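Handout, tutorial session.
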Amino acid sequence: MINAKGLTGIIDAIAPFETADGFDNAGLLYESGRKTDRVLFALDMTPGVIDEASALDCGILVGHHPVMLGGITRFRFDDTIAAAVKNGVSLIAAHTNLDKAKGGINDVLAEKLQLLATVSLSGGTARMGFLKTALPAKEFAVYVKERLGAEAVFAVIGDKPGLSVAVCGGAFDLVIPAFLADADAVVVGELKHHQALEAKNLGLTAVAAGHFITEDPGFRVFYKTVQNILGQDARCFYSESGKNPFSVF
């Protein structure tokens, strides 16, 4: 059995909460006071995932994206926070601290793309490494799609073959840091229009593979790491209801 404070301490040892960005709300978000031997992991904390936690009798939900971010002033009876309180499910978020952590979201993303000699970039959040063989820009975009199992990607086609690659899951603004680090290509979850224009102007290949797609692999590794530490004290589950909200037509 374990309680939310105990599990928060375990997560802190893997991905220290003090490393989270200033805007972030990582850590223990709601504590029910209940001990449990079942823990659910999900990239997003949604009411549906809370229902799943309740159905599995999980007393703790560990998510990547915090539900209380940006100054929430009220919540409804049917939103995630209310559902967690009603069902006695404690909430813990491992967000930008896990993005930066060794073996965390962005290390796993770099590994999925088979990057070599990977180093930290942009204050430790992003990663940069090298492909074994340079790929023409269009082939690189297809390579990213296939390696991440994405249904589709958006790509800005740059001037050079992709060899040095900067990566960061989610919506991180990586174009300028990547250019300054002499990267040939960038892989992120989301790419805003002005960022795409910057990449085009700088001759960078930039691939947006999807927020969920770029972060889910790393969070699954994290879930397995926590399970290994907990051993027989608690059983961890990975959400089956928490899915990519986007469909491709």
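The second record follows below. Compare its token runs with those of the first.
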Amino acid sequence: MKIISALSVLGAFVGASVDRSALYDYYKGINKDELIWAVNCGSEKPLIDKDGVEWQADSNYEGGIKSSEGNNHRWIVPNADIYHSERWSKSAKFSYFLPVYNEGHYTLVLKFSEIYFDEPGEKVFNVYMGDSILLHNLDPVESAGSKMLPHDEFLEFEIRIVSG
């Protein structure tokens, strides 16, 4: 299975009590040898993380606003540099164009962490692939349990070429 990895770090929140013991394994599941494309959303610089995954500077997008607010905070999880920046929009949609041209099964890895808002419900959004909703009413603070904690989504899909 090929893996497409697209980072959409969209915000930040702080919650009440959070079980942090499981966070050391949160990053597992990305095999760098199977990556097709990895982008550090909102960042002007590429990044090689501690596992050797190469994240390119923000590219292949249309719209949205970049932010590196996460650089101004102390992170409690390992390998968190990828969560320091984001691309977001208050009203308009923004898009990333994934460079996938071959038929096959893929996994889209979306990495989120709220770096601005503090409470659940302050940032809630949908994630689409084309016209299909992949994630409905995603709330990064509620999903991660707190501001400045990672929440990753692994979405499997298939590309088929349909002839005319």
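Points raised in discussion: Residues 1-25 have pLDDT under 50 and may be disordered.
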